[in-house]
Amino acid sequence: MTIQTTPTQAFAGQRPGTSGLRKKVSVFLQPNYLENFVQSLFDVLNASAPDGLGLHGQTLVLGGDGRYHNRVAVQTILKLAAANGVRRVLLGQGGILSTPAVSAVIRAREAFGGIVLSASHNPGGPDGDFGIKYNASNGGPATETLTEAVYARTQTVTQINISDAPDLAIDTLGVQQIETMQVEVIDPVADYAALMRELFDFDLLRGMFARGFTMRVDAMNAVGGPYAKEILEGELGAPVGTVVNATPLPDFGGLHPDPNPVNAENLISHMARSDAPDFGAAMDGDADRNMVVGRNFVVTPSDSLALMTAHAKLIPGYKAGLLGVARSMPTSAAVDRVARALGLPCFETPTGWKFFGNLLDAGRVTLCGEESYGTGSSHVREKDGLWAILFWLNLQGATGRSVESLVHEHWRTYGRNYYTRHDYEGVAVDAANGLMADLRAALPGLLGRIFGSRCVVLADDFAYNDPVDASVSKAQGVRLIFDDGARVIFRLSGTGTEGATLRLYLESYEADPARQDIPVQSALADLAALADQVAGIARRTGMSGPSVAT
Ligand code: VG1
Ligand code: CO
Fold first, then answer.
1. Which terminus of the chain, N or C, has less C-beta within 10 A?
2. Ligand 1 atom at minimal distance to the Cα of residue 491
3. With a cut of 70, which residues of the chain have pLDDT below it?
């Protein structure tokens, strides 16, 4: 085997979005498309490493969510890594590693970084999406500075260094060699499971299942299956069959592995049956998202973060208390109320997990969350689906209370933040950009305006000043905040691969326990109408309502 240097030409559009580079599989299948991006990444890493040695002598972690093209991409990346100075790759067996597991392995093995092959909650299969993301030595998503440098390099890259070695045997544990690089195929679950053992009271959880506690985890035919099966059924003694759709399939069995009440409808209807299990949960394609469900009761992700914050001391890994909490801007302010009551610092960041990394690294926060079914903690630098499920399981065990009763009690104590997200998918890019541009232009005139009983007290385009590295991220979403705490937020998705997706986030606060059980969409109907009045959503998109409301 030898290292080949082959000429290449730049592709347009290789700019990573909210979470890595995501494109249709057909785009990734173009000759050199993946190679160009990975070569650009390696070029940047080789040029930017502080010791001047770059990747030389370094270890990278590699794995993905098992979607279509995962196995082919793994082979290509190994051959590129071997030709660009990497000393060792830790590869998940079969090319499999969940996003939180990549983060856990990078941290546990002190690797230089890692590559995650995933388009997360986007559908898979030959007609679906593929994606690639780089995580740094803290285990977290690369910062914008790095992803922008990689993007710039993709526009100038002219040659690819790649080994012509034959494919490696990626299904067998153990060490192999490619050029001078070692490839160690590792158990994808082991490091992650060890971390979960440190955080949660496994004896308590074992006892719960031994006494007949019932649970259903829908892994949506995605990468969370092996993790949930091994930990819940294997180690904690949950009955076989507790985890359903547990085998990662290249097309997720046709499911859309996005754990919300619309796409995980199966779980929702199962949890509404008279013989429903005590606890239900689902994860997304790469197992970093979670949905928590009680009997006929769905927990809003923003509420989940607030409850975790309120009860953290009951969980062994957090018994000493929290350093602080952070939420993405569109996430509801439910957690802010808990943080205030507990005297904890509370940060508001732009959408995307990469913005939590600095706060976690600096020891300023312990828990983080996003409205998009993502919660996590300082144990890794990604959101973590199974971690959140184990947290809620441990919480039920420690309190002896059900999911529904925990949430109801929380609302009585702190008030309820009614919350919904309306997605307008497949909008023409020009129409979506026009809507946002006009909204931004209208902001000065919106301040102080009265809508019904509400007055706009803040109208801006959210900008984030990172308190750790002083970087500034502008244009992160238009916010209208009202005098009663209600919020209406508009932003465009940065993870889609077709047209534009407008996300409209609606929130109102209700302190009165007698008014905390209104169906969410009716509670927020007036804010939805207001949003349409202000932004002309129906008129501009031609859609009479959102394609998904969760
Ligand atoms: C979406 C979510 C965001 C999340 C991101 C990645 O981004 O809104 O909260 O961090 O997906 O999650 P956007 O730009 O489409 O709104 V995952 O599980 O897809 O990595
Ligand atoms: Co995900």
1. N
2. 16
3. 49-52
